[in-house]
Each structure stands twice: as C-alpha cells, then as structure tokens.
Amino acid sequence: MRSALRAEGYRVLEALDYRGAENIQQQHRGQVDLLVTAISLPGGNGYELARTLVDVEPDLKVLLVPGETGAKMSRYYNAACSELQRLTRPFELTDLLQRIKSILESGGLTAETS
User: Which pLDDT tens digit goes with each residue over 11-64?
Assistant: First the structure.
C-alpha cells in the first residue's frame, strides 16, 4: 500500500502502532490530510485512534481499512461505523487510490461505506 501511494505522489508517514501514530500527528500537526488505518493495532484500535486524532485536528480525514464487516467492527470495537469512511478488505489498489482521492476531495468524516 505504501509503495502504491508513494508512486501516486502521496507523502506517506508510517506508524507501527497506536502511540507511534499519535507521535506522528504531534510532530506533523496541520500537515497530515488523511489517516489510513487498520482497526486492529498494537496498543489500541484504529477507530479509537481516528477519534483521538480528529478531536485534535478536526479537518483530518480518515479511511478505516478493517478486515471485518461493519457489523462485526461495531460489535467488537464499539465503533460507530457509519461515522467514518471505510474500505473493507480485500480490495484492489485501484479501489484504495480512488477512495483516497475521493476522500481528499470531499469534506472530513462521512457515512460512505463499502
């Protein structure tokens, strides 16, 4: 995913875990346009991470890439799935790139799901 995004001209900042993502957000405040995260992360979950980072930077856009369907995600992670963009695995890289472009061109959190 990282290579495909870079090949499309996106600047990619990577974090290995929940805390690392928070640190990146603090170091690059106002410079990050989109958070792309899995739900299952070391040190926390991606939904909570998204809510935390959006609380600090309301203009941050989010794409969740869960391995679970919306119902499972909501049940296991206490996530209000309809609040965030998501792209459920498996997906093609072209789907990911199209979704990212669409999110970046639109405003913040939306109810679009897949």
Answer: 999 999 999 999 999 999 999 999 999 888 899 888 889 989 999 999 899 998
User: What's the chain's Rg over C-alpha atoms?
Assistant: 13
Is domain 2-105 in CATH 3.40.50.2300, yes or no? Answer: yes
Tokens of 19: 């805390």
100 Cβ contact partners less than 8 Å away, ≥ 6 residues apart: 5, 10, 34, 36, 63
| Count of other CB atoms within 10 angstroms of residue 37 | 22
Q: Are the C-beta atoms of residues 96 and 87 closer than 8 Å to each other?
A: yes
Summarised one tens digit per residue, pLDDT across range 88-97 is 778 899 999 9
